[in-house]
Records
---
Amino acid sequence: MTEAASRTFAIFVEDKPGVLNRVASLFRRRSFNIHSLNVSTTHEPGVSRMTVVCEADGDTAKRIEANLYKLVNVLWVDDITHAPTVERALALIKVRVGRDARAEVLRVCEVFGARPVDLSLETMTVEMTGPEDHIQSLVDVLRPFEILEMVQTGAVAMTRGSVERAQSHPTIPARRTHAA
Amino acid sequence: MNQPNTELPNRVGEPLQGAQILWEALVREGVDVVFGYPGGAIMPAYDAMIQYPIHHVLTRHEQGASHMADGYARASGKVGVCVSTSGPGATNMVTGIATAMLDSVPMVCITGQVPSALIGTDAFQETDITGVTLPITKHNYLVTRAEQIADTIREAFYVARSGRPGPVVVDITKDAQQQRCTFEWSDAPIELPGYRPDYTPLDSQMDEAVRLINEAKRPVLFCGHGVSEAGATEVLTALVEKAQIPVACTLLGLGAFPASHPKNLGMMGMHGESWVNAAIQKADLLIAVGMRFDDRVTGNLKTYAPTAKKIHVELDPAEIHKNVHVDVPIVGDARDVLEQLLPRVEPREHAEWLAHIDALKGDSAVRDIKDLPDLGKLYAAHVIHDLYRLTKGEAIIVTDVGQHQMWEAQYYKHDLPRKLITSGGLGTMGFALPAAIGARFAKRDDAVWVIVGDGGFQMTACELATCVQEGIKLNIALINNGFLGMVRQWQEFFFGGRYVATPLHSPDFVKLADAHGIKGLRVTQRAEVEAAVREAEATPGTVLIDFRVEQEDSVYPMVPAGADLHDMIQRPYTPPAAPGTTDHNPIFETGEDDR
Ligand SMILES: Cc1ncc(C[n+]2csc(CCOP(=O)(O)OP(=O)(O)O)c2C)c(N)n1
Ligand SMILES: [Mg+2]
């Protein structure tokens, strides 16, 4: 058994009503703790993709995967925790900034690769896309300026390179069963 | 698989009502009996039912309908079907669905739903039953159009029975039942993109399992429910005989390996035999087949089988490493896996190990009450042991939940699978009578005995009227101890003997039988047991026997919840008391030292 650590799953599901509910209900009833969850459509009709980040040790991660497969509408589960990935979240952060502090906040944004997307006499809204820990660092630096509100998506993740891995899931052939 | 009905006129291609399509599909899935209760949202389906060769059993409560479908499925190995209306009808089935889910029973539950236009409006008798049953079904469906019905029913049966079986709910709106569409039916194998119930064991794991089995000095094989589900009894027996491996059964595994087989040690776990648990704690290898290391069989996980390597043969990958971390997980069908192992496992004697386990039996066997002399007292264990003897162990026994259930497991020896029907995972009181009605429809020629407590019986006693309306024959052994006995026992052991809310006042059960027009008998002495059982057997209709057993007897041995498996509470042995004194344990009131 390995230590509990942050795990990232890419979960491909049928795009049908109630599927998000089924996945979320599974995590809840098995006491698997979700850190973040993102759902979106994909380039393939009828297939949605979820990115779930949660805490789990090695055995639990395998059980999460196995339990997800028990859901009839789940097509493919990829535990990409240890694969090289690009992982991104998006945050919008509204900071109280008067004229005097504007330049400083803009400099901070530049350092983090964030960009201002809205400006008023008293506020600036900053958009940041990046790994979640980078966003957290930006938040820490902006905090002294007084953050008025913020919103952040869950992480979305994709493995790097490898045509093979990318092709392993999109068209999931239903396997014929002996049980029928 | 259920047998398709061949007499049905072929109406494929004809415009049919959704309600008709529902029955067309069910009949094509081999259904000839359903258990249900009508109401507004399912009325179109009921109205169409009479056109089809389906026998409908009208229950007295929808919980009964769900347990009947469950009992039918467990006795037959086919998919059981129950039907109810929306809202309260559907929610009444929830207990039965959860029961089937935890024991992996294939079941399809058809519920009516309010018309699709009214969904989400809190319409009369609207309950989001797919939402409610999401965590307690293998899968569920909401059907809002007639064209979806045929495929959905086909899919539901396939999902319910394939892989690790389970209950499936199909919720059909009233308008979908009323619409007409062209009836289409396909016999092609079902392919669901996200459902892969078949698993092939990995070679590396099989190799490792073979190595461990051949090297083991102190192996124990666990026989669980998966063995009977997979039809693996024969191959398991062959393997056990070849390698001389002793077998321990789970509650739902009883009968999947013959109780009378010399290698069968008996049941493991909380109320298992003490030598079985002791053997597990000493073993160097556990080969767990079709079971899931439930907390009722492991006790304290930290001290569980500390010296044993563990091989886990299981169809459901989600069970691997769930409660117990195993050394060799083998995901696959129990029969397939055992068939592959059999030729590779080497013959062994294990004489020392078997002798060691035999020696463990010594003391505990003396404490067994079933062979003790009759002193005019009636013990539940006596009743069940006598019932076992008198029915030659051949009856289908359907138990409820409580002390009587554990005594059944200990004293009624099952040599065949599908002969013990009991709610193991959920432990649902009220299960026995309705489940037995279901079993009766699955196995019309077997003797069916219900073993039920005075508490659980009263939870679903209304189904006695169902027995009468259906004119069926069941024998009901009501183990009447005047208590919610199992809870009373825990109060005695763990709650300072405070009997809070466990003494039970009951109606006169013989009169209750009489009021239903069935025969009721009362037994208060062991000497009367045989005559009553014989009379019940000889009576054509359902018979209820009110066995007035000792009120404060307890089930021994016992592993307290969460305690170490080897740390069992044994039946207290009190030496025979001097004549004339009353301070003694009545069970051992033998008058002579029978040790
Ligand atoms: C529906 C339900 N409610 C409560 C329980 C808890 N419970 C387990 S055994 C038991 C007592 C059963 O009493 P009885 O039916 O008289 O059987 P006995 O133990 O006396 O043989 C109870 C209340 C349960 N298992 N199921
Ligand atoms: Mg009782």
---
Amino acid sequence: MNRFLPDVLIHTTEMMKNKHVAVIGGGIAGMEAASVLARQGLKVTLVEKQKATGGKLNDWHHLFPDFSSPGVVVENLDKKTVRAGVNVVCHTEISHIERNNGRFELSDQRDVKIFADAVIVASGFHVFDATLKEEYGYGLFSNVITSVDFERRMKKHGKLLTLQGTEPRRVAIIHCVGSRDAKVGNIYCSKVCCITGIKQAIEINKMLPECEVFCFYMDLRLYGSKFDSLYLEAQKRHKIQFIRGRLSEAAERPDKSLQLKAEDTLQGRPLRMNVDLVILLVGMEPALSNSSLMRNNQMKPDENGFFRSVNMHEARNVGTQEGIFMAGTAICPMAVNETLENARSAALEVMNFLRTDKNHGGF
Amino acid sequence: MENFIIIPFTVGLIYLTLVLIYRFVKWVRGLSKLDKLRLVQSFKIRRMLRSLKEVFYEGLLHRKIFRKNPVLGYMHMSLAFGWFLLIVLGHIEVMAARRSLLVPFYLPVFFRYFETGTTFFASGIFSFLMDFFLLIVLSGVALAMLKRFKKQLFGMKKTTRLKTGDRMALTSLWLIFPLRLLAEGMSAELYGNGSFLTSSVGHIIGSFSSESTNLVLWTAYSCALGFFFAALPNSRYMHIPTEVLLIFVRNAGIRLKKRNNTYTDIQVFSCSRCGLCLDNCQMAAAGINHAQSVYILKNIRNNNLTDEQLFNCLLCGKCEVDCPVGINTIDLRITQRIESTLQYNSSYNYLEDLPARKASTIYFAGCMTHLTPGIIASMKTLFHMAGENVWFMDEEKAPCCGRPLMLAGQHDAASKLIVNNTRKILGSGAKTLVVSCPICYKVFREDYELGNVEVLFHAEYISRLIREQIILPGKTTTRIVYHDPCELGRGMGMFEPPREVLRATGKVIPVKNEKQMAHCCGGSLGNLKISQQERAVLRNQAVKDYQQYLPDVLATACPLCKKTFARHRGIEVMDIAEIVVSSIRKSAEVVPVKASVKEEAFAEELV
Amino acid sequence: MEDFSFLNPGSRQIDFDNFDDRLLLYVLEYEPSFVTCISCGGCTATCSAGNLTNFNVRKIGLWLRRGETEKLSQEIEKCMFCGKCTLVCPRDINIRNVILLIKKRISELKTENQPV
Ligand SMILES: Cc1cc2nc3c(=O)[nH]c(=O)nc-3n(C[C@H](O)[C@H](O)[C@H](O)COP(=O)(O)OP(=O)(O)OC[C@H]3O[C@@H](n4cnc5c(N)ncnc54)[C@H](O)[C@@H]3O)c2cc1C
Ligand code: SF4
Ligand code: SF4
Ligand code: SF4
Ligand code: SF4
Ligand code: SF4
Ligand code: SF4
């Protein structure tokens, strides 16, 4: 079968077959990177701490900007990993990566050990804990929920009700919760929540056409292809109202509705509004295990706590420890399509690394 | 006998006396009529004795410094008390020698120079004692020198910076006693009138002994004394006489009343620049090293206080706790703030008289608390359980309590808010006003005139409910560290009620830095200049300290503390009201509100 | 007559080429954090004074940036120094100090401009 390949390449392919890559995190980034590498003939182990792969997408109801099914994405990726022969290990949370004699030793809290020639960290992101913004009342007022709760409720029940079981007549969607906020220590933008908010606003309007939906934003950051057309659609077809002003606080009324305080900055006047339901667009934070994954090697966090790349333009997937690479939202907030592209580029970086790795021959 | 050697000393002393008389008279005359009356009325034997006792303990023995730092205390005591004994004993010695109660004022100072060899009753004992006390003073001087160069030996983080007047006084002070030792040693060698110390020193320097060296040494000694007296009024040593006046004035019940008067000067001049306030001040950790009380006092005295210093202080009160002179650093600073902002107090003429609601109890949450709705929710639950008819006065609209304005020095402006709020409180006919913010509590207690309305801090209110068994919190094994909010603890002296409440719900762990020595969380409204990054340093320092005790929860009783600590994200922070409510819920086997929503939200999380 | 020339906003347009930036530079010198405002309105939304009267602390900042000192000097009177704004600002701006500095400087400039 190798009749048409030059000798050198045959040699390399043989050599690569003996290489082992460990991928930490079975979200879509990890799955994609693992399956690409395995298809190239490498031995790949994908480690996931939850009971199944798929990461956050398992919780999402619909994906922006096309309302497609996250379930299908995960299903396809699952098929790909299985077909490519990736060794998937679930229920295992990696807490240490140590380099010994040019190889990496991965371990968890129990005594699972995995040895690898290269590592991809695809540990994803952590959803901001909205109780930290106490003034928004999450965890305190029953009708304040997060965008994550929204997705879960929609996925489970297919409908959106207040805690009293009524259909909300007015919903406020709050942007930048836990992002762009020095008060919680996150000064970066989570990038996908603006468009998530618009997507959810449209979904609410589709379900409950009588319900008024307001988005409270500081800036609308709709960077992606087709994002702005969704914004346009939200205004034209779904009568979503956009108010430029940051929510300062929410208070619960006796009837469990919420009084919001914001400024309509374009009017230049403070605004008070009563709503039945508040959705907080929670931001993306570095995954919880990041700091322990950095402890026993040269990996470093960037200024926001995500994994630092050696060069954010040319080598985004390359970590500050030689032999460790990153994929997906472990690097910074990104959407599904970017995550998948990013994971493929991580796989390529790993192959280049293993091919030129001095300790193990190659060229 | 050359009498001229007394001239430098005499001139210095006369100058000093005149300056002191001038200043003291000016200061006392500058007090308000009422304060002067107070002072006159305080001239009663008992009070005078009390003041004298304080002068003895603090001015001479320096008891407070001793307690805080024994080495430093010894240094101050040996200098002050030692010198004092030298003077007293010297006089008695001269009286014994001359067999007369009337002796020239200079004679005790230069006794060994003038009295060459006469023996009189107990002269040996006298010279022994004089040598002994000289030794004590010298040890103090030695320590003082050491402290200048090696402050760490004294367990001090910092010493104060010096200016020229101080340097002159300091140098002459350092010289006085070594010169006296040399002069007396020389005389002892020449006339044999010394004791163990001076004679031995005399032996050592014996080879130089001559009448003329003796004269030179005594003249130098006199010059050092004269110089010191002359430099004293313009140096920090002015604190020595001023502190005596301060003690009498303070014991007469005179206080600063939001405006500068000569009591400010008395306090300012009483500061010995011992630097104890520097050691207590947390701001140094954040690199703020120019705004502490000792510098403020110095700059008031030198008339070069800047806003950047004046407003860069948490008003946490920690420096006041250990000030050995008992200077009211907080009042003093607020007064300076009032003076510096007099020109721009607001009138708030937009304030309307909003109607009051009739109620037996009022709850005033305060501005800050609106950003910690957890506290409000808990208070509402407690009121509900107590079956209280409560008017939540600032639920929708009410001016601020006025305390933040006061902290910023805008006293007149604050009074406008106070008047507005007072009218409403009285209008409601309430008997009790409950507040859950120490900042509000302080102003309601100290600056509002609310007649028969009882102002209760929520800790007091809750502990009352517990004692009367109106609410039944369930005791758990939760480890609680309680953070004393500055305005409540040092500010209002309330340490026990919050602890009492917490003890009913869990295990309160005592910590080293608590009560009077509690940290400031760093969030204080008192500081208008500090940056958020600097605040974070202070907060982290406090949290790190508390974390050593492995608490399950850090309890506090101030919305601002809660918000400040919550930003740390490494420790669970709750207000005492929230802790009580959650413990009642637990004991009643009802799922707390907070937990139930969380469960709903996270139940589906993949395991 | 008092000469409050520094208060004159000039024309109705914002004249970027010559506006009185004395106040702005003063504030920035002592409270550099002010430069990071993104006009989110959080401060105005929470403001205790704004809850009782027509007062917009975010606009105070905007006027300061544009040299509109006259409006500024009248409006700033309304602040109660409660500090809530500082507690919600996502940029961690020390708004209370900004207000103190403006008030201080305006009162200084007023005295300076007074003919003796
Ligand atoms: C509310 C919300 C809605 C969104 N909606 C959309 C959308 O509609 N369309 C879209 O394009 N994007 C959307 N996104 C973005 C999308 O979720 C991400 O792009 C995607 O989840 C990134 O995948 P990932 O694999 O990088 O990270 P994750 O999905 O976070 O996966 C990381 C995986 O790693 C595992 N893991 C972490 N640490 C370890 C460890 N130490 N050991 C073992 N396993 C570990 C985790 O359990 C997880 O399974 C949304 C994001 C949010 C917050
Ligand atoms: S994407 Fe939008 S909502 Fe999310 S952090 Fe950025 S600006 Fe805020
Ligand atoms: S204020 Fe008090 S503690 Fe501070 S230097 Fe002066 S005397 Fe010492
Ligand atoms: S009040 Fe507190 S912050 Fe201010 S000088 Fe004293 S110790 Fe320092
Ligand atoms: S925030 Fe709390 S600890 Fe800090 S100064 Fe205020 S009351 Fe004191
Ligand atoms: S809250 Fe801060 S950033 Fe937002 S408008 Fe006010 S000052 Fe500017
Ligand atoms: S400090 Fe002034 S501007 Fe800020 S919230 Fe309070 S009243 Fe408003």
